[in-house]
Write a structure and sequence with these properties.
The protein is α/β, with parallel strands linked by helices. It has helices spanning 21-36, 85-103, 122-130, 146-154, 158-165, 188-193, 231-243, 261-271, 286-292, 302-310, 326-336, 345-348, 351-360, 378-395, 399-402; strands at residues 3-4, 9-14, 37-38, 41-46, 60-64, 68-70, 76-78, 107-111, 134-140, 168-172, 194-196, 220-223, 251-254, 277-280, 295-298, 315-317, 341-342. Helix content is 38%, strand content 17%.
Length: 404
């Protein structure tokens, strides 16, 4: 029987500057929480341009802040080219603070960026901490290569601020897969707050319409996530089919909504000449496409990796290696454990090598053949933790709230 929480509120922050990973992760957690607790409301603050393209369960909603996009070189710019970046950041910061003041959350969960994009959440963290809100930082299993993460965080004293503001740090992976803060000089206080909750299991939604893109025959799925930097992967796959005519397996390619128009048009034109290739731009029900596939070719971002494990699919990972090494580190570790096959981008660029890997993929053993326990209990653990916190609140309400 589901437990009822009267007027319990959770606010989530997802900065969303490049892909869809942060929003999809927040949405997955939000849906699991409202599924377990009747009466709980979750509000997601998102910068994703297509936040409204996804379905949200009852009692889950989102607030859209002006979009900022991250360029391939790691720099940022406003999505609206006529608006100055600093003006956009000021608007975002104001909306985030106002949303927190109006919504009055019991728990605030920040995804990946401890102080938000360019520090935009720090003021809100000050405010919520003073009123007794439980503050949680959620981290992927892999953040980045230690030297890159340290350089990014050191100049803004981020680790010290995590220690100052946050009550808990959730790592969305198991401790024996990867430590996201490996190689950094982590304050003891931060280490004490860290909890490895496990990977976030995915499932096919039983609500709403089914995806219209699932092929009627066996198929391989090629997905680039958001697609902003996915053109090289799709180009390599199309080249392999162009040069090896014995590759005949039905293959569904999802370009991603953020793939630049010029690259998208070129790839659609080339793929249209190959009968066994089907290309779509976007599907908001990726779980269905992965669940139905005989094998998955991907760059190996966090959400896709969780879906590969959740649906136990043979996978070939071709990770991005620049400007972040997150996908590379995850793919190397998963390959080392025998969970996936991996090609580096320079190997994938060889049509013969990629064609051979694609031919092997449908008969590759699934991840479960290499590991009986893939530690997909993240949502279960998060729901339990949240329930315990609300139990404590009922017994011992925060002093700042009692005094109001």
């Amino acid at each position: 029987m589901k437990r009822r929480l009267e007027d319990a509120r959770i606010l989530m922050y997802s900065h969303d500057t490049f892909g869809l990973g942060h929003l999809r992760r927040c949405r997955t957690i939000a849906h699991a929480l409202v599924e377990n607790y009747r009466g709980l409301k979750v509000l997601i603050i998102s910068g994703a341009t297509i936040a409204g393209a996804f379905d949200y369960r009852a009692r889950v909603d989102f607030v859209k802040v002006p979009s900022v996009i991250k360029l391939r070189d790691g720099e940022y710019t406003s999505m609206a080219s006529h608006v100055d970046l600093q003006e956009t950041l000021k608007m975002r910061q104001s909306i985030i603070r106002h949303t927190a003041e109006t919504f009055q959350p019991d728990i605030f969960i920040v995804d990946k960026e401890p102080m938000g994009l360019k520090g935009e959440v720090e003021e809100t963290l000050h405010y919520l901490k003073a009123r007794g809100t439980t503050l949680v930082l959620g981290m992927r299993d892999v953040m980045d290569a230690p030297h890159l993460l340290e350089a990014e965080w050191k100049k803004n004293s981020v680790l010290q601020k995590i220690d100052q503001f946050y009550d808990r740090v959730w790592v969305y992976g198991p401790p024996d897969f990867h430590d996201p803060l490996l190689g950094l000089d982590v304050p003891p206080g931060v280490r004490r707050k860290m909890e490895f909750v496990g990977f976030l299991q995915r499932s096919v939604s039983t609500q709403g319409a089914k995806s219209e893109h699932v092929p009627d025959e066996d198929y391989l799925l090629v997905t680039t996530g958001g697609g902003g930097d996915g053109a090289d992967l799709v180009n390599d796959v199309v080249s392999a089919f162009e040069q090896d005519h014995t590759l005949q397996h039905k293959t569904l390619i999802v370009l991603g909504p953020y793939m630049p128009a010029k690259e998208r048009i070129q790839l659609l034109k080339r793929a249209s000449k190959i009968a066994c290739l089907q290309v779509i731009e976007f599907d908001n029900k990726m779980e269905e496409l992965i669940a139905g596939a005989k094998g998955v070719v991907a760059m190996g971002g966090y959400n896709t990796y969780c879906e590969i494990l959740s649906f136990d699919k043979p996978a070939l990972i071709i990770p991005r290696t620049w400007p972040r090494e997150e996908q590379l580190i995850r793919a190397q570790r998963a390959s080392e454990l025998g969970l996936v096959d991996m090609l580096l981008p320079e190997e994938s660029a060889d049509p013969k090598q990629l064609a051979a890997a694609l031919k092997r993929l449908p008969t590759r053993a699934p991840p479960s053949a290499s590991s009986e326990n893939m530690r997909l209990e993240g949502l279960v653990h998060i729901s339990r933790i949240v329930g315990e916190w609300f139990d404590d609140r009922e017994q011992y309400p925060p002093l700042s709230v009692v005094a109001e």
